[in-house]
């Protein structure tokens, strides 16, 4: 399946024994032209953040709330009454660490939005850097790989993970460049590995701190690169400069929370079908089919570069082997599927004419346009809903309720929207990530009824929303409902204070039961 490349490829980039291409490549773009095209596509990847006032990422509001509490801890008596924040040394801190300086300079909401804008662009630049380091040109592979940037993990707002992936791609490109560099220690005992040791021991720690999964992806990329060059047990030791974080993993007990969940076979099939789930089921499935077919066709034509092909295969296998829940995180397997597709696309080493590369870029731009358009409209709806915050007193106790149709394909950006009450009104809200022993943000009040995901109401087809006995409302003074369908019933005596097309804020009839 994976072609072993000749150390000295011919002008077309393939070995002389490679079958002739079915497309002429005499009209292929030049090095500089292809690089400019790739960089432009990479920078365009951040477009949704530029057209929407409020990023439409599922987890974004809860991340904002955590950052707000983190930066205000010890200086805000209202927040300190409701929450506590404790730093934990773990492989899941990327955006949190960035927010410490940026949040103080730009404010929480702008800083978090800037980080979000940076992540897809960095990911695109990482894709460009990898192919440029390997082939000194930007071709069909990296352009197709761009279509995987807006993956389910990006849409759900997994900031730390997606940041670590972007850094892992850039780090791997550096690894490849150092392979042929003339940087050497004075002395023969370390040879060419000296430069990598100096760079990648600290770099591996940084990527691990951002997110352990990005660090793992970098290790797989390095292993696949080494395996292609020399198959054998030594390939397992090739990523040795990245090994130090293993000690931190053992010390933190990161292997806890191991679970495949119910019906693992059906679940695994489902996440592969939703590998590129974003806004449109038809477009997402079509894109998945196109990428898989092109990768398979390229493999049959012996147009896959084994330096990346083996890593893509290993990542695809990992999506089946590893569980859904790992080390306190969810969707550990799902988030790797788009990465396997990304690396599989990057492995395509097939010089093609300009029109083919432009067509691949058009697929990326169509997906990006659909996402940006959806964000623009959804942001306007959220902006109307957030007008309710003017009716909330500072330090209010708010029970958030969000209806999420179980059969819905696209991501639901409203799922953690009640968390904006903490960001702007220092409110106690039940829609944060505050599970004891897992998250750095912890609740002082509210009890188990307020622990995420207590705001989520999964709806079956045709089911109505009944909030008369919504449990978190027992501990709150306000109920803030979000959903595309209006609730059929509200708590007895509730007084509506604000309505929007996707939300209702009500004052509950009696004070909270336990304060």
What's a quick, concise take on this entry?
By secondary structure, this protein is an alpha/beta fold. Helices cover 50% and strands 7% of the residues.
Commentary on this structure:
With 515 residues, the chain is α/β, with parallel strands linked by helices. 50% of the residues lie in helices and 7% in strands. The strands form 2 sheets. Strands 2, 3, 5, 6, 7 and 8 form a 6-stranded mixed beta sheet that branches. A two-stranded antiparallel sheet has the order 1-4. Helix 3 (60-72) packs across helix 5 (94-106) and helix 11 crosses helix 16 (306-321). The longest helix has 32 residues, at 354-385. The chain is globular.
Based on the model shown, name its key terms.
single chain; 515 residues; alpha/beta; 2 domains; six-stranded mixed β-sheet; two-stranded antiparallel sheet; 19 helices; 7% strand
């Amino acid at each position: 399946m994976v072609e072993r490349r000749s150390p000295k490829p011919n002008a077309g980039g393939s070995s002389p024994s490679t079958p002739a291409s079915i497309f002429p490549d005499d009209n292929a773009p030049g090095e500089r032209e292809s690089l400019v095209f790739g960089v432009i596509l990479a920078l365009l990847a951040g477009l949704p953040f530029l057209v929407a006032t409020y990023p439409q990422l599922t987890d974004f509001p809860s991340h904002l709330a955590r950052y707000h509490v983190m930066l205000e801890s010890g200086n805000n008596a209202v927040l300190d009454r409701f929450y506590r924040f404790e730093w934990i040394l773990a492989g899941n801190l990327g955006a949190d660490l960035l927010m410490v300086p940026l949040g103080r300079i730009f404010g929480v909401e702008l800083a978090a939005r800037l980080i979000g804008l940076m992540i897809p662009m960095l990911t695109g630049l990482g894709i460009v850097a990898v192919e440029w380091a390997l082939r000194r040109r930007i071709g069909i592979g990296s352009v197709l790989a761009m279509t995987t940037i807006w993956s389910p993990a990006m849409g759900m707002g997994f900031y730390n993970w997606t940041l670590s992936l972007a850094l892992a791609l850039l780090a791997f490109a550096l690894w490849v460049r150092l392979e042929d560099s003339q940087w050497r220690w004075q002395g023969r005992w370390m040879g060419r590995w000296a430069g990598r040791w100096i760079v990648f021991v600290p770099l591996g720690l940084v990527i691990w701190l951002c997110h352990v999964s990005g660090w793992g992806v970098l290790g797989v990329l390095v292993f696949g690169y080494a395996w292609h060059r020399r198959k054998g047990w030594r390939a397992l030791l090739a990523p040795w400069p990245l090994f130090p974080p293993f000690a931190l993993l053992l010390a933190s007990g990161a292997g806890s929370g191991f679970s495949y969940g119910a019906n693992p076979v059906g679940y695994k099939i489902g996440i592969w079908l939703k590998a590129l789930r974003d806004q449109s089921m038809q477009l997402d499935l079509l894109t998945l089919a196109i990428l898989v077919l092109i990768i398979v066709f390229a493999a049959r034509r012996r147009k896959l570069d084994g330096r990346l092909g083996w890593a893509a295969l290993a990542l695809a296998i990992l999506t089946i082997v590893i569980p859904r829940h790992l080390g306190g995180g969810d969707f550990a397997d799902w988030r790797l599927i788009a990465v396997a597709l990304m690396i599989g696309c990057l492995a395509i080493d097939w010089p093609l004419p300009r029109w083919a590369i432009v067509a691949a870029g058009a697929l990326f731009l169509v997906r990006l346009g659909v996402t940006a358009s959806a964000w623009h409209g959804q942001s306007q709806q959220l902006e109307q809903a957030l007008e309710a915050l003017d009716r909330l007193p500072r330090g209010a106790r708010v029970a958030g309720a969000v209806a999420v149709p179980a059969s819905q394909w696209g991501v639901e950006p409203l799922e953690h929207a009640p968390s904006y009450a903490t960001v702007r009104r220092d409110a106690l809200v039940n829609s944060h990530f505050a599970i004891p022993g897992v998250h750095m943000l912890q609740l002082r009040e509210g009890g188990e009824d307020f622990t995420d995901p207590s705001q989520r109401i999964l709806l079956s087809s045709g089911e109505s929303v009944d909030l008369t006995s919504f449990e978190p409302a027992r501990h709150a003074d306000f109920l803030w409902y979000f959903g595309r369908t209006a609730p059929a019933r509200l708590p007895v005596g509730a007084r509506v204070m604000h309505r929007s097309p996707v939300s209702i804020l009500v004052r509950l009839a009696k004070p909270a039961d336990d304060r």
